[in-house]
Write a structure and sequence with these properties.
Elements lengths: L7 E5 L6 H12 L2 E4 H11 L22 H14 L1 H11 L6 E5 L4 H13 L4 E7 L3 H11 L7 H20 L4 E3 L6 H14 L3
Parallel strand pairs: 1-3, 1-4, 2-3, 4-5
């Protein structure tokens, strides 16, 4: 098996920026297992109610989400990501019990929770690394959605919300010393992520 320089790699970023493709490339290169955090999100929201965990059901409480302005959508996304912090830490703790490198990728990886996971890994003597992918151009995200979901048409508003959410994630990640990597050019994103992780490791991040 190819041995990676990390036991768990967390890849955060907004919807539609190419996290899944980057995770797949990195998994192939490092003999790693991929965990789609969206699956975890679906599971925990299905198992809970708004009364039990209101932070996990913020969008469920909005009768018509299409009526929300983009900034409000972003605020709800950030709050949801924060509420999912214990779930992320649980996934990381579980993956550290397995001697196979794992990549956890998803939209709802809050930078603060990611930083906590990195520290938890270090305390356990294991290498948990993280990177946030960023695409600042909503038109590019619109194109990405169109390629991924051709029957849905041009999702301009969704792409605008994703771009703003991604910008907020990138800001938070940078403040916490977590690497932020532009998604483009696509052809070498996995290599650039690898270099960013090496640089962060050299500086003790």
């Amino acid at each position: 098996m190819i041995r990676s320089s990390w036991d768990v790699l967390l890849i955060g970023g907004a919807s539609g920026v190419g996290k899944s493709q980057a995770a797949a490339r990195l998994a192939r290169a490092n003999g790693a297992f991929v965990v789609e955090f969206d699956d975890v999100v679906s599971a925990v929201t299905r198992l809970t109610s708004a009364e039990q965990h209101p932070g996990l059901h913020l969008f469920d409480q909005v009768p018509d989400t299409s009526a929300l302005d983009v900034d409000r959508v972003v605020e709800l996304q950030l709050a949801t990501a924060d509420a999912l912090a214990p779930a992320l830490l649980g996934v990381v703790e579980n993956r550290l019990t397995v001697d196979v490198p794992a990549i956890v990728e998803g939209d709802y990886l809050a930078p603060a929770a990611v930083a906590d996971a990195v520290r938890a890994g270090a305390a356990a003597g294991r290498a948990v690394r993280a990177v946030f992918l960023h695409e600042e151009n909503p038109e590019q995200i619109t194109d990405n959605y169109a390629a991924r979901e051709p029957d849905a048409g041009r999702q301009f508003r969704r792409a605008e919300a994703s771009a703003r959410y991604g910008h907020r994630l990138a800001e938070q990640a940078a403040r916490l010393g977590l690497p932020v990597v532009p998604c483009r050019p696509w052809h070498d994103v996995a290599e650039r992520v690898g270099r960013a992780l090496e640089l962060a490791g050299a500086h003790g991040s």
